[in-house]
Amino acid sequence: MRESIYLALVHYPVYNKNHEVVSTSVTNFDIHDISRTCRTYDIKEYHIVVPVEAQKQLTERIIGYWQEGVGGNHNKDREEAFFNTRVYESIQKSIEEIEKLEGKRPLIITTSAKIYPNTVTYKELGEKITGDDRPYLLLFGTGWGLTEEIMDMSDYILEPIRGNTKYNHLSVRSAVSIILDRLTGEN
Fold it and tell me: Is the pTM of this model over 0.85?
């Protein structure tokens, strides 16, 4: 169902440019812009997955500033955008929280610039979401992408976003916006 779509921005486990598994840094732009995009497309919750305690605390402090602090009083739109933004230390914890809320495990959908055997089109996934009562968790990777372990645990992998050039290196904020529009936007 469209009412049970969750999105997670994963900072670990992801690859760096040397194909090593790392934890990437949280950016202020990703916190703000993806929260706003998720609110615009009525995503139930936006989860920022970061295992580094200092980054987790900083992210929660930024969100708190806009929800309970001076920022929320200054900019009500930003306060509303952060209403459903949460921080978790792992993908597993994110999944567990969704299970508590929904009473069932979410289908895991990942994004990649590569094609996999379980790759689906936006149209196929959009139809599944509309006609299904299960929750969906869309995972977006940072750095150089989600690890193979995460890809292997996915129920579906969305087809890559392609422009009309060989260059293919969108920011995750842009990818989130494009994908949410393709899946849930107006036809």
Answer: yes
